[in-house]
Design brief:
Elements: E1 2-8, E2 11-21, E3 26-33, E4 38-42, E5 47-51, E6 56-58, E7 75-81, E8 86-101, E9 104-115, E10 121-127, E11 133-139, E12 145-149
Parallel strand pairs: 6-7
Antiparallel strand pairs: 1-2, 2-3, 3-4, 4-5, 7-8, 8-9, 9-10, 10-11, 11-12
């Protein structure tokens, strides 16, 4: 999946998303027209159109949209494009906690996320300092649990 977009102020605006299925040699292309407020999703067999909603992000970059927020609220909602569908992701603040990564403690706020009112939820820890995602735990429909943690690199210095 490849996301292309632009930055305006502290926010990222996706312009297009290309999803390639390497096994089937197929691709889906999503384009966003901000002037017409229109999203178009095109694959070989079908096409869809959606009215663009405020705060739309793509599935690859939306976690970093928290970073552009001045203040973290009790609840947040995003409209997310995953190249096939347009879904509403909602987040509810669970608690504040210090998360230990390597030998360092980072002050975080934990949120629980839900997609389109589905039963399956995922958790995200955002640094209190600048709202960067520090850890994400996502269970999958097939029973796997994905646990991602920032552990090194230049972004780790910003926490």
């Amino acid at each position: 999946m490849i996301s292309s977009g632009h930055i305006k102020g502290n926010h990222y605006f996706p312009d297009s998303i290309v999803r390639k299925n390497l096994k089937k040699d197929k691709q889906t292309i999503t384009t966003i027209d901000y002037k017409k407020e229109l999203i178009q999703i095109q694959s070989e067999k079908k096409s869809k159109e959606y009215q663009l909603k405020k705060g739309t992000q793509d599935v690859l970059s939306y976690f970093f949209e928290f970073n552009g927020l001045v203040k973290l609220e009790e609840n947040h909602s995003f409209f997310i494009l995953d190249s096939h569908e347009y879904k509403k992701y909602t987040y509810r603040k669970i608690k504040e906690e210090n998360l230990k990564i390597n030998d360092r403690f980072i002050e975080c706020i934990k949120y629980q996320g839900r997609v389109n009112d589905e039963e399956l939820t995922h958790d995200i820890w955002l640094s209190k300092k600048n709202h960067i995602p520090v850890r994400i735990i996502t269970p999958t429909p097939i029973g796997l649990v994905v646990d991602q943690v920032i552990s090194k690199g230049n972004i780790f210095n910003l926490l």
